[in-house]
TrEMBL record:
This is DNA-3-methyladenine glycosylase II. Keywords: DNA damage, DNA repair. The keyword DNA repair applies. Residues 1-32 are annotated as: Disordered. It catalyses: Hydrolysis of alkylated DNA, releasing 3-methyladenine, 3-methylguanine, 7-methylguanine and 7-methyladenine. Its EC number is 3.2.2.21. It comes from the Bacteria. It is an enzyme of class 3 (hydrolase).
Amino acid sequence: MAGRFPQRPTRTTVRGGHAAVPAGAAGGIPRQASAPARVRRWVPDGPLDLGLTLGPLRRGPADPTFRATADGSVWRACRTPAGPGTLRVRAYGGEVLGEAWGPGAEWLLEQLPELLGAADEPEAFVPRHRIVALARHRRPGLRLTRTGLVLESLIPSVLEQKVTTDEAYRAWRRLVRRFGEPAPGPAGVGERAMWVMPAARTWALIPSWEWHRAGVDDKRASTILRAVRVAARLEQGVGMPAVEARARLEVVPGVGPWTSAEVVQRSHGAADAVTVGDLHLPGIVGWALAGDRDADDAEMLRLLEPYAGQRHRAARLILLSGTVPGRRAPKMRRVDIGLL
């Protein structure tokens, strides 16, 4: 079964998916010196924390498709159904400004509200434990993102199967930069240029030695190759309920419950898609809710029963609470696949 091995949080990340985004200026959205290709302004109906909402889309601090900058902006380089696009999002005084470039710009701006949690229903969540209630109180801007894109979450999730996050992030960076394309607009130039991930056909044509150089074993590479061959069918899953989309994903050999949950949490904003098969999550949930650091998946699901329909949100809040059991075993050893 697939599993994810989180590293210790750095200064720019915390458990639960968060990107450090400085607060925007209080005086409103500034006028632009040069107009971007597309612009959209949107007012959310409640508190919105860009770092919490979009943080799960970042695959490591050096993700070439995601960046949070000192001016309070979050940048995303995406491969949309209309083509590659770059999105810049900023929040000021309750208003959001979205700027987009490239063939996918119009699609990105159309999806902007759902990306920022407009389809989410945080008010439907009722905390049943003090630790969850406190985490929710401290993170009022948490919304569950809905990207409307399957492959961009599926491929990095497969890369994260059974390896450390460091190894998975390194593989994602290398493959995107080598086989992707520069992001449209200003984000695609300079020393820290952003990149759009490869198209499905490009993933399918990556030679075996390039997977090896990226540290990706044959099993994970084969899963990705099988997935991109049916990419169109998988992307159609965004129009289905999350449960049906997961079933379609799991038809692909190598994609199990862990991976499908990780995908629909992002593509669908699935509030109930709790991750099972994870190395650490059951112990964290067990410790937070029952003082049981040895909880397994079955016990985790039992403890989350009061949050039926909202189990993923409950798990995220538990992770964001910072209440985790101390480490009793050494970190997972990194394995050189060339020695296997």
